[in-house]
Amino acid sequence: MRILFITSTRLGDAVISTGLLDHLLRRYPQARFTIVCGPVAAGLFAHMPRRDRTIIMAKRSYDMHWVDLWRQCVGTRWDMCVDLRGSVIPYLLRVSIRRGMRGGRRPGPRVGHIAQVLRLSPPPMPVVWTSAAERDAAQALLPDGQGPWVALAPTANWAGKVWPAARFVAFWHDFVARHGPARPVILYGPGDTERQMAHGVISALGDARDTGGGLSISQVAAVLQRCMLFVGNDSGLMHLSAAAGIPTLGLFGPSRVDEYAPCGRSVAHVVAPGPAGRADMRDLGVSSVVDAALRLLAGASKAG
């Protein structure tokens, strides 16, 4: 059985879609998968079981990226195509079962929208796939006996979603004073922009472990699984943390918390005060984030 799975170009949406993929892996144990995604999300699927290939679809003018995708897929007879982009591609290929997601914004969590493609309720939660080598490397980076480790993710893909670096630093000092000893791990994406956003936190926390922004997505997932807590802006890293299964606290301002709050077995979020869509992250107080983090950890401890 051959399944073509077309997911998002953005990391966060691609992470959320892994729950649906995990369902298909369990539902069709003999199936082989081809994944279609954007360049940023490609590493997410590196260690996915029964993946034949990943087709990286980089956007081109005049929608020519869809033509390129059709050319790469038209020679195969597909048993199923799951298209989360709502494109015409499934109807231009030889496909036995077509399942697609309609465009347009709808109320409710994104994970629920994706689950409705296969009429699943409750929606399957996102997952991560890592290798033994990546898990060993993560243990070397974050050794036992030097933690517990807490992941801080002070970056995002636009400035309006970023809690100021000084607030992350103040959060850390207050959190450690109330929780007890811990070590911060600073996570951010590749490139100078991300590094500059993270620099204020790294430089202010002398014992912070700087991950450097050069890890692959699955390597970051393995690092996250070594942490007792994640605190970060609404970003792909936030969704990756929730999928990795660690207590994840997402910080929201003007972005759509109703749709993109973290989803997983131990998650929470804090929203800056203000009108929906116009809240200012600078108005999100440190004490409210510390309180939420401590509640999340307490709840995870009871559940464990």
UniProtKB/TrEMBL annotation:
The keyword Glycosyltransferase applies. Keywords: Glycosyltransferase, Transferase. It comes from the Bacteria. GO terms for molecular function: transferase activity. Pfam families: Glyco_transf_9 (PF01075). Gene3D superfamilies: Glycogen Phosphorylase B (3.40.50.2000). InterPro entries: Glyco_trans_9, LPS_LOS_Heptosyltrfase. SUPFAM superfamilies: UDP-Glycosyltransferase/glycogen phosphorylase. PANTHER family: ADP-HEPTOSE--LPS HEPTOSYLTRANSFERASE 2, TETRAACYLDISACCHARIDE 4'-KINASE-RELATED. This is Glycosyl transferase. It comes from Novacetimonas hansenii (Komagataeibacter hansenii).
